[in-house]
Amino acid sequence: MAKRTEIENYAISRKIVRLMREGFPQDQATAIAFRMFKDGELPIPRQPKQKRQTRRQRMDAYMKRTKRKNLRRRR
Q1: CB–CB of 42/11 below 8 Å?
Q2: Could you tell me the CA-to-CA distances from 35 to 15, 29, 32, 43, 60 in Å, in that order?
Q3: pLDDT lower than 50: segments of the chain
Q4: For the purposes of burial, counting CB atoms within 10 Å of the CB of 33, is it exposed (0-12), middle (13-18) or buried (19 or more)?
Q5: In angstroms, rounded to a whole number, what is the distance separating the alpha carbons of residues 11 and 6?
Q6: pLDDT at residue number 44
Q7: pLDDT at site 45
Q8: Among 16, 62, 66, 74, which is most buried by a count of CB atoms within 10 Å?
Q9: Where are the domains of the chain?
């Protein structure tokens, strides 16, 4: 059997948490989530959520944008 991808594992674990919040015991929530995955009922996101940029990356992007704006104004 093929291994699950990281995003599939993430979707299964999120479903388990959701089901437990709805009141199912952990064992039952796990069984439901895996059955939904096996039957193709569990929606799998196409791409994992992007991690937030670091402060340095945000600052670099800001400086790059402002530099372009200033260059356009001088022309």
Answers
A1: yes
A2: 11, 10, 5, 13, 46
A3: none
A4: buried
A5: 9
A6: 87
A7: 81
A8: 16
A9: 6-74
